[in-house]
Amino acid sequence: MTEDISLLLRAALSESESEAHAAWRSWRDSQDIQQIPWSAQQLIPFLNGSRFHEWLSGDPDAGILQGIVRRAWTEAQVRLALAHEAATQLEQAGCEPVLIGPAAVHLRNSRKESIRSISNLRFLVRRSAIPLAMEALRAADWKSHGEIPASQAFDWSMFTSFSRNGVELYLHWRALPVSHAEASECERRFLEHVDILAAGGMSFRVLEAGYALLAALAGRTADDTDIIPWQVDAASIPRDEIVWKDWTRVASAYAREAVGRLAELRALGVSVPRVERSLLDRLRAWLLGEK
User: Which domain holds residue 268?
Assistant: First the structure.
């Protein structure tokens, strides 16, 4: 992670007003407003809120920074409408899609006024519905970038992709990159823990907060092109809805790195509970020589 992104993350996530402001000032003083990197432009909208407005007071380039925020908000509304359209098509095909990824985080974002940019669309469906889902998306003019995986390949991969008019859509049958032995059980478990969220006259099926947090902490893969760091998504999930004892048990089963990543969030100034991996998971880590 570059120094400028690290500063923006601390400015966005730290719950200490003084630390957040200091990080913002360090970032702002180091930047040429005419040459802000694309990665930073994607993060700036997440800072939006009362303290961000205070930071911009007296900044001669406040209009440029506010324009970045407005553009992200407008694009997010367009992408949400597109997500709703795709979800409706998948529902009509009998696939019961669950919205995950950037759009789901945008909807769940517990930080008032902040905007999670929506870089792509992601849906989770049961693996048996993948052929129906792919057919429905192709019928809606989404260009497929892969074929239906062979039956045994479902355990080794977790999504296939589509695009339309410059927008990428990922169709998942699993939210986490787990081992093939854990794959089927992980898929079933996540699809059993779903909420309904409404926004702008639209409703979406999304993962429950605890499962959404696991996906944010451990769901990224090496070929994930989302430029927003996972820390943003993890910090956005409303943590007051999570039963941490149950969460730790599921994390130990399917996302063992998630517990350690909570410590990384605390280092950025985010209030998260101190949870420990289960005794069984710690024994497994010791046997495998993991940290």
Answer: 77-288
**23 lies in some domain:** no
Judge whether 121 and 98 are in contact, CB under 8 Å: no
Look at residues 3, 5, 8, 13 and name the one whose alpha carbon lies nearest to residue 216. Answer: 13
What lies within 8 Å, CB to CB, of 189 at 6+ separation is 250, 254
> Could you give the number of structural domains in the chain?
1
In a domain, 217, yes or no: yes
Q: Is the pTM of this model over 0.85?
A: yes
Tens place of pLDDT for every residue, the chain, 291 residues? 789 999 999 999 999 999 999 999 999 999 999 999 999 999 999 999 999 999 999 999 999 999 999 999 999 999 999 999 999 999 999 999 999 999 999 999 988 889 999 999 999 999 999 999 999 999 999 999 988 888 888 999 999 999 999 999 999 999 999 999 999 999 999 999 999 999 889 999 999 999 999 999 999 987 787 889 999 999 999 999 899 989 999 998 999 889 889 999 999 999 988 886 654 455 455 444 554
